[in-house]
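Newbie here. two chains, one complex. Structure please?
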Amino acid sequence: MKNCLVVDDSKVIRKVARHILESLDITVSEACDGREALSQCQSGNHDVVLLDWNMPVMSGMEFLQQLTATHSSRPKVIFCTTENGLGHIKAALDAGADEYVMKPFDRDTLESKLQIVGVL
Amino acid sequence: MKEIILTPAMRMLTELLEQRTGQILSENRLWRIETSLGPVLRAHGLKTLDALADAIRADASGAMGTQAVDALLNNETSFFRDAHIFALIGDQLIPAAMRHAEALGREKQLRIWCAGCSTGQEAFSIGMLFQNNRARWPDWRIEILATDISHTAIARARSGVIPQMEAQRGLPVSDMLRWMEPEGDDWRISPAVRGMIDFRIDNLVAPQAPTGTYDLILCRNVLLYFTAERKRALFSALARYCASGGALLLGAGETTIGLTTDFTASPEHRGVYRRVDPA
């Protein structure tokens, strides 16, 4: 079974994502900011991270930069954010994000993005 | 599941759908009638399906019936739907069609028909696939005909504008950046891809839009709405427009077996059917 770390400061979004991911037979763990996510990535064995952009303590972008700098082999990273402008999308890809989901999203979108990054 | 009693109005609407499109609403899809027609009722200030049925009968122009039929059609689609099929098209079917065309001394142009294209994502996906592989096929052109019976779906496909939720469904973000640009909350297909496709309203029961023959025909997730008799007629039509050596792609769970001898299942690739040359 694949493992996904859902990183979002919104409890509602984490709950929705968990519901969708579990329906796709993916095991889910949660973090509510980038720092907590980094800590989980030290000990966890995640295949993919679903990552919000704007969060307190540490943003999604900072998380991705630190994860990339400290892990030679890291999980796939899919940004999942309301930051839907071209500038943000390009910056995310430049920083090494594997895919990008613009909120709002649905099950089909998330499933297809997981297929694109090879998790499903 | 709650049993749905077919009222005279519902019967009239399902018959109209079949008459205009050849499609039947199977028992497990009857629930769609009220849900799908809700927007049409609201747009015309009608309260019930009976009132809609009366309005369709009274409308000599037929426009009200067209709106109702459009609303009853299932326009579900997404970019690169069944990704392995598009990998097969890019890696195997297009190169094979090119080799075949070269062997026959034809010009470097392939013709593809997306039959039942809905709002265009399948045709746009083929356009993107071709553009992404330009370097592999530098001198080739691809002409795509995309047809659907739904006026609403074709109008949207022609506009090239895709709502955000649908724009990201199935589409790698790299392709989104390369072949689309934001337009308000929506995304617009680039002229390079949009310009490859001729979108036409057409009825698969008696196709008028195709001309000549096509190297590849995609008719996916359409047959499931047809009776066996309609499927046979459809296969005859598709065979007429499928080039010698050409291929037909059907949706998962759809088959030509037992319905036509004009196509034979490819032994290598599931969902691919080869045109059988007439004796």
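Moderator note: The domain at 2-116 of chain A is CATH 3.40.50.2300 (Rossmann fold). The interface with chain B takes residues 84-86, 89-90, 93, 99-102, 104-106, 108-109, 112-113, 115-116 of chain A (CB under 8 Å). Thread marked as resolved.
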